[in-house]
From TrEMBL:
<keyword id="KW-0472">Membrane</keyword>
<keyword id="KW-0812">Transmembrane</keyword>
<protein>
    <submittedName>
        <fullName>Tetratricopeptide repeat domain protein</fullName>
    </submittedName>
</protein>
<keyword id="KW-1133">Transmembrane helix</keyword>
<dbReference type="InterPro" id="IPR019734">
    <property type="entry name" value="TPR_rpt"/>
</dbReference>
<feature type="transmembrane region" description="Helical">
    <location>
        <begin position="362"/>
        <end position="383"/>
    </location>
</feature>
<dbReference type="InterPro" id="IPR011990">
    <property type="entry name" value="TPR-like_helical_dom_sf"/>
</dbReference>
Length: 478
């Protein structure tokens, strides 16, 4: 009887189940977002209170947004807003929902939702949240080519100085980018200098990025010589591949402005090499999308240069088309991934207010046995304290993480044999791991299924396996 009474979701055990599952999801957000998404979904049916339901849906949406899965992110933020335990949390979810719509280009929807958040935070005099809601408004206006974005982002700086001065460097950074967008290059330089000085993240990569952007804005403002010290400062710092690529490109622009064609060719050739390596090493579609988007921006910048050597101009016109094709393919891959995740994760629905979840049927029995529960209160309280101090178990692999690991194992095996698997072929292997037919895989890749099959099997045979399916089967069984 005692075990039955403690078996409902309202019991300490149920609360611990939610806490442990949610902590697994949260722990994976920065390292393995695929796993974070899986565990966030797992925590949904374990949620008993509105706060827990809100937290689970909010985390699911946040992780989906990071994975460039806007459909799932929209679903999660909408449900978080519906179940929010208080109005402030509701409008924070709504503002993040607006940010998601901005990311997919639905500016009208983004603006409508963002206005709701601004109105609420202004009424509540919640200056901290209001500053971030206005920051999003500025970004929406910039995307709409509305220069009132500059006024809004100035307001963000004033608010941020009052309530979150330590992060004001990010506001300076956004305003500088907006000034560049609207062609006010001298103002961009002023605020990018402030961003460099006040940027809150002091890692070598972030500081290198701020130096590189300042150098770029100085060149746009025809202050060529002043750009060099910032390029030199960034060169000495450790940089991530995307930042290294941006630095190299900016240095190429600098040399082109100095009318040094031979050196410019060398540096831009290195940029091309860095881009190819970055794309080949991209672990997933979101990374490939980011690289392709940056490549498009880089080629656009370079093609605007009057001093760009003709040979590079012709090459970059072709490279721009290729980058656009890569971006289109990455977006298509992400759509396939989102469809797959939706199937794997199933419904992320929440119970209606005041309706018991599927897992808490025992709670109604607890009400009937209230007198027994009162007698057990002391025992339950002590049990809660002990459970609170227990460590969260080491997260176990989930199906999505296993799939990613299997694809990476295939890539590694082939790599050891000197076979570099392109991103498109990695995605073909991923679909093959899911049991898809070559006919369907070929259709997704815009080629004949037999062409895909022949290519993948050739890779496998060169690595010593009869076929790609045999390689996958072997790795699955080890």
């Amino acid at each position: 009887m005692i075990l039955w009474l403690l078996g409902g979701l309202g019991s300490p055990q149920a609360q611990t189940n939610f806490t442990e599952t949610y902590k697994k999801a949260y722990a994976f957000t920065t390292t393995q977002p695929d796993s974070a998404l899986y565990w966030a979904h797992k925590s949904l049916p374990l949620a008993y209170t509105p706060q827990q339901s809100y937290d689970a849906n909010y985390l699911l949406a946040y992780t989906a947004y990071k994975l460039c899965l806007p459909g799932l992110a929209i679903q999660g933020y909408q449900k978080a807003a519906q179940i929010a335990p208080n109005t402030t949390k509701k409008y924070k979810a709504i503002n993040n929902l607006a940010s998601t719509y901005l990311a997919i280009g639905d500016y009208k929807k983004a603006d409508s939702l963002n206005k709701q958040s601004i109105a609420y935070f202004a009424k509540q005099k919640d200056t901290y949240s209001l500053s971030y809601a206005y920051e999003l408004k500025g970004m929406i206006l910039k995307k709409q080519d509305n220069d009132s974005a500059l006024t809004v982002l100035h307001k963000v700086i004033r608010l941020r100085q009052q309530v979150d001065a330590k992060n004001i460097g990010i506001a300076y950074h956004e305003l500088a980018a907006a000034f560049v967008h609207f062609g006010l290059k001298d103002s961009a330089v002023v605020y990018q200098r402030k961003a460099l000085k006040n940027y809150p993240i002091k890692t070598p990569d972030r500081i290198a990025l701020q130096h590189t952007l300042l150098a770029k804005y100085l060149m746009f403002n025809k202050q060529i010589r002043q750009a060099l010290p910032h390029l030199q400062a960034a060169q000495k710092l450790s940089k991530r591949p995307l930042t290294e690529l941006l630095w190299c490109h900016t240095f190429g622009l600098y040399l082109s402005r100095l009318n040094a064609p031979n050196r410019t060719r060398q540096v831009f050739a290195r940029c091309d090499s860095l881009l190819v390596r970055a794309l080949a090493a991209a672990p997933d579609a979101p990374t490939r999308k980011a690289i392709s988007a940056q490549a498009i921006a880089m080629y656009d910048d370079a093609l605007k240069l009057k001093t760009l050597p003709n040979s590079i101009r012709l090459s970059y016109q072709g490279q721009l088309k290729l980058a656009q094709k890569n971006l289109k393919f990455a977006n298509k891959t992400l759509k396939l991934k989102e469809d797959y995740y939706s199937q794997q994760l199933g419904s992320v629905g929440l119970p209606r207010d005041n309706q018991p979840t599927q897992s808490n049927k025992g709670w109604q029995g607890v009400i009937v046995g209230l007198s027994v529960l009162i007698g057990l209160a002391g025992v339950a309280f002590g049990w809660r304290i002990r459970q609170r101090n227990k460590q969260v178990p080491v997260p176990t692999p989930d199906p999505i993480a296993k799939e990613n690991a299997l694809v990476m194992e295939v890539v590694h095996v082939l790599d050891t044999k000197g076979i570099k698997l392109k991103f498109i072929d990695q995605e073909a292997v991923r679909l093959l791991c899911r049991g898809e037919s070559y006919s369907k895989i070929g259709k997704e890749l815009n080629e004949k299924g037999d062409t895909t099959k022949t290519r993948l099997n050739r890779f496998a045979k060169n690595a010593g396996y009869a076929s790609m399916l045999e390689l996958i089967k072997t790795l699955r069984n080890t």
